[in-house]
Amino acid sequence: MAIHFSVNQQEVEVGPGEEEMPLLWFLREKLRLTGSKFGCGIGQCGACTVHINGTAVRSCLLPVGQLQGSQIRTIEGLAPTGQLHPVQQAWLDQDVPQCGYCQAGQIMAAVSLLERINQPTDQQISDNMTNICRCGTYTRIRKAIRQAAETHAEKPVTEA
């Protein structure tokens, strides 16, 4: 039986026999969405972080057979119109990446955090940003999250 879900608002189908394939490899090998990276393969480092139904999830261990009806968003889906997401812009403004390998996962974790807590405290940032950066850019990551939160707070609320 085929599994259906969406990736960056595009419907996809997983054929029979592929249900055990980890989402990370489905994204990279089948859909050619290579922003999410393989880091550790055991769900610890976070380089493979994507959003599933709005929640940041490590994709390296999650079989696609468990995703029926899910909504997946990858780093490629953050800027569908070409305009950078505020977190992506803050990452550039704060010169966060050093080697850059973990950055897609870090950004996806930060976006998830800010979608749940629009003005996180330092403790909330520490508690929620559990991805590993081997280069140690944690201070710049924190600054970028603060900048993105301020940018979000400055946007005027529009009445419907």
UniProtKB/TrEMBL annotation:
Keyword Iron: yes
Pfam families per the UniProt record, alphabetical: Fer2, Fer2_2
Boundaries of every 2Fe-2S ferredoxin-type domain copy: 1-78
Keywords from the UniProt entry: 2Fe-2S, Iron, Iron-sulfur, Metal-binding, Oxidoreductase
Record flagged with keyword Metal-binding: yes
InterPro entries the UniProt entry points to: 2Fe-2S-bd, 2Fe-2S-bd_dom_sf, 2Fe-2S_ferredoxin-like_sf, 2Fe-2S_ferredoxin-type, 2Fe2S_fd_BS, Beta-grasp_dom_sf, Diverse_Oxidoreductases
This protein's name: (2Fe-2S)-binding protein
